[in-house]
Design goal:
The protein is an alpha+beta fold. The chain contains 7 helices and 19 strands. The strands form 4 sheets. It has a 7-stranded antiparallel sheet with strand order 2-11-10-5-4-3-6, with helices on one face. A hairpin with a 2-residue loop joins strand 16 and strand 17. Helix 1 packs across helix 7. The longest helix has 27 residues, at 274-300. It is globular, with a radius of gyration of 21 Å. The structure holds FE2/S2 (inorganic) cluster and fe (ii) ion (FE2). Fe (ii) ion is lined by residues 182, 188, 192-193, 283, 287.
Length: 330
């Protein structure tokens, strides 16, 4: 019988710190949709697991990615969000960096000046089918190789031609793993998601777990909008694919005990199906309530560890194996 992670793994800054470096910085992480960075000079800045990152399109059409941290004394380069600029001007003392990260000038610094090799802290960036990914510590295999079988599962879904149709997020009072593990099993569906359970053949719900990704399948019932394929990739990306739309879901830790679930919808014509939107919000609210209750119980002290269903929870088992191998205390 596979035993779960210990309850202590779902809280505390030491464990979170190991996960930031072992799970998040070492992996390719979804960052933005290519349409957010279409023109030269356009940039997107946002935080991933506490790492501030900025990605910018240069005048040659290539993407450059950097920690949004100045090498002088750690000042912030740009505000989070989207913008456009010809160079990065640090918001602390005004050093200027080229779009490729090289230091252009160090305002009124004096002699000797900074090392001419001084530049922004580079982040690896690559694009797959219109989705921009970053690798923060630069050690991951190339993106194509890293996506492997996960990418193969998307063949037949033509989402490169989709355009953004809306986005929203919801912050949960739980560890990011509490939410991720909930995403990784359908065992709770008949109990927690009554409406979803009526829309799909829930008895035939299956999760297949592979090296660092999973696929969920359930035969739809007539009339549901949920006829598609649901994919998850380590550590925090879910891609819910349908014939004419896609819902990209990311689990973003805001610290050891808070998680932002960010949704981005894409569709062939840029419109958001109201039924898809209503259902995904309903499901998230149902998951948020149960995950926050589970987190309170993990923190309360009675529970140390449990067991995983061989029939339903192999996705959770895979996730926990990856967690143990990348971010365990020993
Ligand atoms: S911290 Fe950026 S210029 Fe000083
Ligand atoms: Fe759920």
């Amino acid at each position: 019988m596979t035993e779960t992670l210990d309850a202590g793994a779902y809280r505390g800054s030491e464990q979170y710190s190991r996960e930031r470096t072992g799970a998040f910085a070492a992996s390719w992480l979804f960052f933005a949709h290519a349409s957010e960075l279409s023109a030269p000079g356009e940039y997107v800045a946002r935080e991933l697991a506490g790492y501030p990152v900025v990605v910018m399109r240069d005048e040659h059409g290539s993407l450059g990615a950097f920690h949004n941290v100045c090498p002088h004394r750690a000042g912030p380069l740009v505000h989070d969000g989207r913008g456009s600029a010809t160079a990065f001007v640090c918001r602390y003392h005004g050093w200027v960096f080229e779009r490729d990260g090289a230091l252009r000038s160090a305002r009124d610094f004096g002699e000797p000046g900074p090392d001419p090799a001084c530049r922004l802290f580079d982040v690896r960036v690559d694009t797959w089918r219109g989705l921009v990914f970053v690798n923060l510590d630069g050690t991951a295999p190339p993106l194509d190789a890293a996506l492997g079988g996960f990418a193969d599962q998307t063949i037949g879904f033509e989402f490169e031609s989709f355009v953004p149709a809306g986005e929203w997020h919801h912050d949960l009072e739980c560890n990011w793993k509490t939410y991720a593990e909930n995403y990784l099993e359908g065992y709770h569906i008949p109990i927690v998601h009554k409406e979803l359970a009526r829309s799909i053949e829930v008895a035939q719900y299956e999760v297949e777990a592979y090296e660092d990704w999973c696929v969920h399948r359930a035969p739809p019932r007539d009339g549901t909008v949920l006829d598609g394929r649901w994919l998850w990739r380590w550590p925090n990306l879910a891609l819910n694919l349908y014939r004419d739309s896609m819902n990209l879901e990311q689990f973003l830790p805001l610290g050891p005990s808070r998680t932002r679930v960010a949704y981005r919808y894409f569709s062939r014509d840029g419109t958001l199906d109201e039924e898809v939107s209503r259902l995904s919000k309903l499901l998230l609210m149902e998951d948020a309530a149960i995950c926050e209750a589970v987190q309170r119980n993990l923190d309360a002290g009675a529970y140390r560890a449990g067991v995983l269903s061989p029939r339903h929870e192999q996705g959770v088992a895979r996730f926990q194996a990856l967690l143990r191998s990348t971010a365990s205390p020993d």
